[in-house]
Design brief:
By secondary structure, the chain is mainly α. Helix content is 75%, strand content 0%.
Amino acid sequence: MKRIKQKAADRLLGICFLSPSLIGVSIFFILPFFVVIYYSVTEGVGYREFVWLENYSKLFQNSAFQLAARNTATFSLSAVPLAVILSLALAVMLEKHIPGQSFFRTTFLSPMMVPVVSIVLVWQIVFNYNGTLNETASLFGLDKTDWLSSPYCQVVIVALFLWKNLGYNMILFMAGLSNIPKEILEAASVDGASESYQFFHIKLRYLSSTILFVTVLSLISSFKIFREVYLLTGDYPYEGLYTLQHFMNNTFRSLDYQKLCSAAVIMAIVIVAIIAVLFRLEEHYGKDLDG
């Protein structure tokens, strides 16, 4: 009986410690999200008449939303895999104890310590029409390119995204590689397994949870690239750089809350669905490594 009372007291104490965080999350995240869902299925702010999926239907027919969704999907599908693959390659390379390992590690981590505004300033200096890249190209007789207002605009943003995120992802992968049991790799070497076999059949299996974590972080970061694009190009950039965040920001300014809320709900559903698929893949791929 005393044990039961003690467990109940401990449970109540735990709830008391958690309550400030639970209340804060509920007020600032959970409740506002349900308000967003409510607005997305009503006629307007202050109206109680439900229109259900009509706002979503109008949203999908909106050309600005179609452009923003296409650009965001294109960017994420190109930037996220590159961020995962390149950072993993860097981690494997630095694991080999190459000369200047500390220098390379510091170099790749340095973008994390640079303010976003400074990063954007560097990119403007390099990729401006009269910037460093075009001036260097003109020395070789090549025509100048307005990089941020051309079909190559997303290449510039992908390069910025990679430069910012590769170092952090690399450190995560290096931590994952260091946690792989050395005796398994040694046993594989004794059995004559090549380095490529060890990498694809042993290391990648043990890195499945790290790959999932890095992919999710990179995916979330790719949806937040609006900040850099906004500082580079403003509210209405070249059409290749018009992202969902631009659409939602401009919709908020025009006070079209139904369209804004519908876009926010769709964006949340897509992100949750992608993350759920990634978790499912990781669970299937690394299920025999538990324990």
